[in-house]
Amino acid sequence: MTYQTSAQRFADLVATVPIVDTHNDFPYLVRSQLHYETENDDQFTFDTGLTCHTDLVKLRKGGIGIQFFSCFIECKDEDPLYQDFNKATTVVRDTMEQIDYVRRLAERYNHEFSYVSQSSDAIKAFKEDGKMALAMGVEGLHQVDTSLAVLRQYFELGVRYITLTHNCDNPFATAASSVSGGLPDRGLSDYGRQCVREMNRLGMMVDLSHVSVKTMTDALEVTKAPVIFSHSSAYAVTPHLRNVPDHVLLKVKENGGVVCVNFFPEFIYRTSDKVATIDDAVAHILHIANLIGWEHVGLGSDFDGIPEGPKGLEDVSKYPDLIMQVMEHSDATDKQISMLMGGNVLRVWQENERIAQELQGEGAKLIDDNWPDREWKFFDYVEEFPEVYPGSFQKKKNVYTSQPLDACEGQKK
After folding, report:
1. What is the CATH number of the domain that holds 230?
2. How many CB atoms lie within 10 A of CB 119?
3. For site-directed labelling of 209, which of 137, 219, 223, 330 has its Cα 20 to 30 A away?
4. pLDDT by residue (tens digit) across 136-187?
5. 186 shares a domain with 287
6. Exactly one of 53, 198, 218, 231 is catalytic; which is it?
7. Is 25 annotated as catalytic?
8. Is there a catalytic annotation at residue 302?
9. Could you confirm whether 315 is annotated as catalytic?
10. Which entry of 218, 302, 304, 315 is annotated as an active-site residue?
11. Does any domain span residue 88?
């Protein structure tokens, strides 16, 4: 078929191919500005338009078919280089509130959204129901508070990828920001390797945005399933530690994964004035596609988690402009453009589901390891309880603080 314009070509493609954005931080805006209290807020006009990067009008104009909302919660320590991972935080509670809000959005606007946790449901929502599919990611393993049990519960609630770090280290992995801050790049810990294996067993996609280079390569060696970079760009185009070096991109090709290009101007600009435009986003897409193939590039905007988008790519409504620019600056076929729009992410999602099913079918056991340095604290009255089996009290190391059992019973009464 011969097209007169890229607009006509795009219109035909977007009718059958969902645009998949793997990273949008809109829920965090609502958390930080409105504390999630939107049900009776007449100014929260999500269905008719808001001033931020994301609302229903912009999503529809942008042709979004599947939107992964990030259930991001910041690293809780004021020192971004902190290493005390036993410090108590509210991060799990706060993540649960993020998950709750994404599900509330899907329910409140169910004429437009379909909340999904399986790739097949996302495709059905787009192709058969004419709705946008909403899925979720969690942006950092600090949000599981050292516990694989928490990771499993996030999966049960519908989270389908977890970033191995945000801008802080955790017991699993080293962050890019820690390396830039002067800490050593230790990559994945042994516990982190077990975590990747458990994510594979579950079907939870491993996200390598934000992590150090050694964490990237370590994870790519361990994982049995293709990975994603949910919102990262190309280091060779813009040398920022949040971007992916070429030697890692080549490993992503071997792994079958996908790098979803981030639109944050600081990560994609190519000029000395550090001003970014839509052309810069196109340059990052084309670099990845030319180096490792169109099968390994996608879209991960970071909208509403950045102050502003590049010129010409200001919000989610601008996706058609981006796709048309890619068409005009490359000789990509319709099949290759479809991969960029969302086909690659769907392939990786489906492959993670398939591998999980295969691992579970082979009898892969749930990994119930704990972080070896975790502090387990109890009141000493628990030592008066019966043993699970002979010697079970001595199996693990606990920290006990004094509290008589009758004092606890008195509190109950």
Report:
1. 3.20.20.140
2. 23
3. 330
4. 999 999 999 999 999 999 999 999 999 999 999 999 999 999 999 999 999 9
5. yes
6. 231
7. yes
8. yes
9. no
10. 302
11. yes
Residues 301 and 186 reside in one and the same domain: yes
Give yes or no: residues 334 and 407 share one domain. Answer: no
Q: How many domains are contained in the chain? A: 2
Q: For residue 280, is it within any domain? A: yes
Catalytic residue flag (residue 296)? no
Question: Residue type for 328, please?
Answer: E
One domain, residues 274 and 188: yes
Q: What is the pTM of this model?
A: 0.95
- Is 295 among the domain residues? yes
Per-residue confidence band for 74, with pLDDT thresholds at 50, 70 and 90: very high
> Given 21, 25, 55, 295, which residue is catalytic?
25
Which of 53, 210, 284, 287 is the catalytic position?
Answer: 210
> CB neighbours of 366 closer than 8 A, spacing ≥ 6?
152, 198, 201
Catalytic residue among 166, 284, 287, 296: 166
List, as one string, the DSSP characters of 240-302: -TTSBPHHHHHHHHHHT-EEEE---HHHH--STT---BHHHHHHHHHHHHHHH-GGGEEE---
Q: Where are the beta strands (DSSP E) in 263-408?
A: 297-299, 377-379, 399-401
139 is catalytic: yes
Q: Identify whether 371 is part of a domain.
A: no
- Residue found by looking up tokens 């280091």 in the block: 235
Task: Say which of 21, 23, 240, 287 is annotated catalytic.
Answer: 23
| Domain boundaries, position 390 | 377-412
